[in-house]
Amino acid sequence: MKGKLVKSALSFIGVAMIAASISFGLVMYYYAHGLSAEYEELSVEYGKLKELVELVGKGASLESKYTLTYEYHKVDSAFRIQGPWNCLIYSPYDNSTLYLVLSMTTFLSKSCVFLSVQRGNAFDFETNETAPVIWSANATASSIYYVPLASEGWYTISLVGPVEKLMDESGIVVGQTYRWFEDVDCSMSIRMIYEREYSPFATKPC
What we know:
It is built from two helices and 14 strands, in the order ααββββββββββββββ. The protein is an alpha+beta fold. The protein folds into two domains: 2-59; 66-204, Jelly Rolls, CATH 2.60.120. A six-stranded antiparallel β-sheet has the order 1-14-4-9-6-7. A hairpin with a 2-residue loop joins strand 12 and strand 13. The longest helix has 31 residues, at 2-32. Residues 1-13 and 29-33 have low confidence and may be disordered.
């Protein structure tokens, strides 16, 4: 199974690199033939594809769809918690849109899932500032959400957010705080839309 996943990831990266190469070839063709509008459009697209491939080389993964999960149950005196309930994503475009599909499996009437999208990396220990929240929702049922992203860059998505910094008495960041609820079993798929089409994006584990 692991071998198939690795092969699939390598294939995806390979397709992106081939697409980037083709885009570069078309960029040079349009430039050589004086087609300025086409040249400018493809030049931007080539730059975005190249940017994503470079992020993969730095440890990110290239995705067309990513899924978060959150399962929290208390059994006697023990807790069962499963994730991942957070992720970092990189949008290569300004004015893109997150397409979030939340699916509930187990849920009590008093429970709630705290969805949030924060601008930047909320897990950056080099600063004690909390990443600003650009969108949030207290979900009590399966739902579909559209979240506009004004600019390209990194975003933190959480099912137990917003993610806040936990600091010691001297102001040093020592961890994060989350908002938990018991007896919840849910998942949320993440896709990105740009100019009415699904767009690839980069992800990093938190």
